[in-house]
Amino acid sequence: MRGYFVSFEGPDGAGKSTVLKEVLDKIGPKLKTQYLVTREPGGSKIAEKIRDIILDPANDKMDAKTEALLYAAARSQHVEEIIRPALSEGKIVFSDRFVDSSLAYQGEGRDLGIKEVKQINDFATGKLDPDLTFFLDIAPEVGLNRIQKLRPGQEDRLEQENMAFHKKVYAGFLKVKNLYPDRFVTIDASQPIDDVVNQVIETLEKRLPEIF
Ligand code: TMP
Questions:
Q1: Cβ of 173 below 6 Å from ligand 1
Q2: From the CA of 46, how far away is ligand 1's center (Å)?
Q3: What single DSSP character describes residue 30?
Q4: Whether the CB of 168 sits within 6 Å of ligand 1
Q5: Do 72 and 78 form a contact (C-beta atoms < 8 A)?
Q6: Positive or negative torsion for Cα 71, 120, 61, 176
Q7: How far apart are CA 79 and CA 59, in angstroms?
Q8: Is 38's C-beta closer than 6 angstroms to any atom of ligand 1?
Q9: Ligand 1 near 121 CB (within 6 A)
Q10: Angle, alpha carbons 53-159-186 (nearest 5°)
Q11: What are the pLDDT digits (tens) for 47-57?
Q12: Can you give the pTM of this predicted structure?
């Protein structure tokens, strides 16, 4: 059986990590093959070190291109060391964020251009694309509000950006999902978590029946 690559995307505070954990708690034992859950930026030892540099609020002078390249560098390591080997062993890889986050945050949010950021990521990943991408859709105001309630005063460098930036990122995600309509599935993340989790599972059963 071939491996499958499933990514979860969305603005800050969409609840991706919680949803991913609850989905795997429910379906993990039922899956036919082994799976792994990973995240970006990070997912491997070197990539997690790059994550610390990117998200450190002290690095407020970081240039937008530096930021985009660091995300791509972390991703390259993550793909080569973790994702590609797992896929060639026929595993299912569930990733909390992937290239689409760079297209929305750096391409649109930082004005570097979606096309330009896609090019550096194609170089970094050898053009690896997910088979299926969940977009957990939440208005930026609602997402940030959730984070401020959850972890008051502990926002990372990206979360600390102003609302105008987060609105651009959200608009970026809408553009990116329109670029890849076959791969993207949008789930309303303002619903109660149980509903979000169930809709993700129903979609997996429909789109990837062979993994169950
Ligand atoms: P996280 O909160 O989902 O762990 O992600 C950390 C932050 O990094 C979040 O604000 C989104 C941002 N990000 C980018 O700007 N570009 C990327 O390519 C990725 C993967 C994340």
A1: no
A2: 16
A3: G
A4: no
A5: no
A6: negative
A7: 25
A8: no
A9: no
A10: 110
A11: 999 999 999 99
A12: 0.98
Domains of the chain: which residue ranges?
Answer: 4-211
Ligand 1 touching residue 101 (CB < 6 A): yes
Task: Assign domain 4-211 to a CATH class.
Answer: alpha beta
**pLDDT level of residue 207 (50, 70, 90 thresholds):** very high
Q: Alpha-carbon Rg of the chain, whole angstroms?
A: 16
- Does the structure show a pLDDT above 80 at 1? no
C-alpha torsion sign, points 116, 76, 69, 173: positive
Residue carrying the six token digits 């791969």? 183
The span from the CA of 209 to the CA of 165, in Å, is 38
Q: At what angle do helices 16-27 and 193-207 cross, to 10 degrees?
A: 60
Structure tokens at 15: 């609840």
Among candidates 79, 87, 81, 107, which has minimal Cα distance to 174? 107
- Residue among 17, 52, 96, 97 whose CB has most ligand 1 atoms within 8 A, to mutate: 97
Residue 166 to residue 89: CA distance in whole angstroms? 38
Residue for token pair 């969409």:
14
